[in-house]
Amino acid sequence: MPTRRPAGATERAGGGAAPPAAAARATPARGTAPPLQLSLQFADPVHRAVLARHRVARWIRAALAAPAEITVRIVDADEGRELNRTYRAKDYATNVLTFDYAREPVVVADLVLCAPVVEREAAEQGIGLDAHYAHLLVHGALHAQGFDHESDLEAGAMEARETAILARLGFADPYAGSDAPRITDHPGG
């Protein structure tokens, strides 16, 4: 599994702004998504039905601007907490961790999603489980390509990109409304 610090829910390895190449990349037009080699692992099988391989691949491909080799691992709270503690020094399970290993010429990354956290957040936000998984997978795929949200400017750009991608996939704006949840590195949200 991961051998370096993850991008995390709010940060990429190395931190700071997205590299200029990442900031300039456009999300590909419909029908032109780059190739994706996907490995889907279920340490926690509870959401296997929601996360059919073809759906996960479609959601990730929508966010890609380059060919990618991505492993998606669905974990329980214990593994999610251990990974977050080990790689981010945060002692709680978070919704998504992104371990980015390479960006060019092929994006190589692991996306780790904690099933109990994703389920709890979806219920708290009153959204479908599939919509929340789609959002977190798009979010993680963008982190893997160098996008971040450390500053308000970066956050606005990343959220706009996520919203546009999710709209193309048929999902509502996850940031709509004044009390809309943000993806943060804080427990529960």
TrEMBL record:
The keyword Protein transport does not apply. Zn(2+) binds at residues 139, 143, 149. SUPFAM superfamilies: Metalloproteases ('zincins'), catalytic domain. Its cofactor is Zn(2+). One of its GO terms (molecular function) is RNA endonuclease activity. It is found in: Cytoplasm. GO terms for cellular component: cytoplasm. The keyword Mitochondrion does not apply. It is an enzyme of class 3 (hydrolase). Pfam families: YbeY. PROSITE patterns: UPF0054. Keywords: Cytoplasm, Endonuclease, Hydrolase, Metal-binding, Nuclease, Ribosome biogenesis, rRNA processing, Zinc. Residues 1-32 are annotated as: Disordered. InterPro entries: MetalPrtase_cat_dom_sf_prd (IPR023091), YbeY (IPR002036), YbeY_CS (IPR020549). Binds 1 zinc ion. One of its GO terms (biological process) is rRNA processing. It comes from the Bacteria. Its EC number is 3.1.-.-. Single strand-specific metallo-endoribonuclease involved in late-stage 70S ribosome quality control and in maturation of the 3' terminus of the 16S rRNA. Belongs to the endoribonuclease YbeY family. HAMAP family: Endoribonucl_YbeY. This is Endoribonuclease YbeY.
